[in-house]
Amino acid sequence: MMMTDPWQRLPALSLKQLQYFVTLAQLRHFTDTANRLAISQPALSSALRQIEQILGGKLVNRTATAVSLTELGIAILPHAERVLSVAQRSFSDMQNIVDAGGNGTVRIGLIPSVSSLLFPALPEQLANAFPRLKMEFHDTPNPSLVTLLQNGQIDFGIGALDSSVPSSLQTWPLQDDPFVAVIHRDDALASASHLPWKQLADRDIAVFSKGNVQRLVTSLAESHRLTLSLRYHVDYIETLYGLVRSQLAVAILPQLYTTHLHDELMKVVQLQQPALTRTIVLMRNAQPLPPMIESCFMMVRQALRP
Known about the structure:
Elements: H1 6-9, H2 15-27, H3 30-37, H4 41-55, E1 60-62, E2 67-69, H5 71-99, E3 105-110, H6 115-118, H7 121-129, E4 134-139, H8 142-150, E5 156-161, E6 169-184, E7 194-196, E8 204-208, H9 213-223, E9 229-234, H10 237-245, E10 250-254, E11 266-272, E12 277-285, H11 291-304
Parallel strand pairs: 3-4, 3-5, 7-11, 8-9, 8-10
Antiparallel strand pairs: 1-2, 5-12, 6-10, 6-11, 6-12
């Protein structure tokens, strides 16, 4: 079907074609216009013919020495300039959004135990440094953290370095996190400052069911021929502590989990013979981040450096 209404033909005009026409109208010279636009004169002439065909009228009078606009060209010029101006502002706004991190949000992943490394100081520092940047924090077990990074669902994360972390991810060690036992204060083992693993051989032990804690403890027991009764597997730390408060179990977990543990009923005891630690790392994909997110990452890296 032939399109007859002018407004139906306008979508066929590109911004680049409008830029050609506006630039020619400003410079009034084909050679200068072609040089400014970094195209050949035949390409400019061809583009102008296409514009005139789309709009349905002649826009430019061309002689050997000069270029002038027709009445139609004079009438259309301010509208073409307005379209380019609006487009330029829109592109500038889109670039600002990209520079701010796609949708203006930095997405930081973390395993639950490392929250004491971030809060409350780091979010405040980031907010002061990047007031236009929204912050999201995604707390999740270590395997899920790795998956979120690989899928691009978070920008960077703080987790534990283990065999689940692929070599495609970049990592920066932050600190070692030793494993400890949390014991009821009335337990006979609570009097020790350091506790050999073998003394837990006849005790019911509670560990987290998610993440890598259970796997690390099981691996240590197998490699050192220890008999450990991992009776309770829980998802949440309050359940873990509840088992200790009830004197039903000894909890084994990384020390960072106990940073804010202030309970007179429980005592934290270092585990040894052998020592078991995990390495806390900052991790991300190798691909560049948007500039503002990249700056945010560098600030977090600097704040958490050993």
